[in-house]
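[Discussion] Sanity-checking designs against the backbone

I'm trying to build intuition for which residues belong where. Below is a structure token string of 88 positions. I'd appreciate it if someone posts a full sequence so I can compare it with mine line by line.
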């Protein structure tokens, strides 16, 4: 399943650090930059990627909708490929 077909959720053993700028994963940690932590926070299995993008657009008025949509989907797909999240 891809970002366009499901609702992203972090896999067991993966979570944001208390500060929210690091994604803790079984193999280590990934430093999150820019809006990445907001995207990961929204990956609770209840929101679609489109809903996450809509939230980001509200938080960042003036951002290019197409760019935000493409970059969010790409980021989530990369996390999925690394085994950090899945689409349900």
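Best answer:
Here's mine. Compare freely.
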């Amino acid at each position: 399943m891809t970002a366009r077909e499901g609702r992203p959720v972090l896999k067991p053993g993966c979570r944001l650090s208390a500060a929210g700028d690091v994604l803790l994963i079984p193999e280590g940690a990934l430093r999150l930059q820019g809006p990445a932590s907001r995207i990961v926070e929204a990956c609770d299995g209840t929101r679609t990627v489109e809903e996450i993008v809509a939230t980001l657009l509200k938080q960042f008025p003036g951002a290019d909708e197409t760019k935000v949509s493409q970059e969010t989907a790409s980021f989530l797909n990369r996390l999925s490929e690394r085994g950090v999240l899945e689409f349900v």
